[in-house]
Structure formats: C-alpha cells, structure tokens
Design a protein that fits this description.
By secondary structure, the protein is mainly α. It folds into two domains: 3-52; 63-191, no CATH class. It has helices at residues 3-20, 26-36, 44-52, 63-85, 92-111, 118-142, 147-168, 171-191. The longest helix has 25 residues, at 118-142. The protein is elongated, with a radius of gyration of 25 Å. It starts with a helix and ends with a helix.
Amino acid sequence: MDNEQIKKKLIIREISFWKKNHLLPEHYCDFLMQLYTEGEALLEEQEEELSKQAVLKKDSAPIIKVVQMLMLALTTLAMIVLMFLFAQKYAIIPIALSCIIFIALVYYLLKTANNRTLTNTLVYATAALLLFAISIKVSTLLAPGHSLITLGVLLINCILWIIVGVQKKLIYFMISGILGIVLMLGYYFIFL
C-alpha cells in the first residue's frame, strides 16, 4: 500500500468516526465519504468498523489513568501534610520530596504542553499547590514570625498563577491569583 492510499484510508476512518459521533452534520460526512471513496458506497457495518479504528477516539479515561491521578493527588496531599507536621529540623525531607515531585510535574507539563485534558488540568493544579506549600514552608522556616515575608511569598505565588493563567489560557489560575491577591490585601489592611 502506498503512502497516498494509507492517508486516504485514515481520512475515511476519521470521517466515519465523525459521522457516528455527530461531530459534523451527516450530509457533510456523506459528501466527504463520497469524495474520498471516489463514489464507492460503504455499508453501515463497514462504516461502523472504520469508526472504531479512528485516530480521534472519544475521551475515555482508562482505569490506569484514573489510578495514576488518584495516586498523584494523594501523594501531593501527603507531602503537604508531612511538610507541616514534621518538626523544623526534619521538614527538609518532605520539602525535598515535594521539590522532586514538582520538578517531575513541570517536566510532564512541558512534554505535553499542547494537551488540554483533565489530566493536564490536575497536574497544573497539583504543581501549583506543591509550589505554594513549599514556598510557604520555606518562608516560615527561614523567617519565623515575619508575616510580611509570608505575605510577600503568597503575593509572588498569586502573581505566578495569574501569569501562568494568562499564558496558558487557564481561567481557574487567573481567578485563583486575583482572589488570592484580593484576600491578601484585605488581610493586610484589616489585621496588620
């Protein structure tokens, strides 16, 4: 089979998938199918089989992906809890582990930068939460009792959220950053 026939077969599979899942109006799909099959009509069973082989498949999260996301969330929560439960001299252990997890998450996001999936959304949120917890813990370890330094670290986190939100078009990051800044300003003017 030459390259042109392979491309044609792939396109026919995709058109069958679009028709089956109503991604395009049926008459468009019929027209495209006639165009690419050069007038040969396909039986319904053939179209059904082709649509199952399509590259663009419905988003179905396999159980492994769900388990991975659950493990990521639980590990992140465990690291954050351990970070704040350990005494000052032992806090470096969960901080170091959290930094390693954060770096792995950023690497994953850079590798899958164009994907706009639920997985990437969870990874973005997890990375932001880890960075937030790490920066707060480090600031309280290095400058205990200095609330202005902690507020400064919080402000930097919120600004970073806004920047990532604008750059990646993630509305929940923009809203979180803006709300965080508003709450910090309110806290600063009311309590300090």
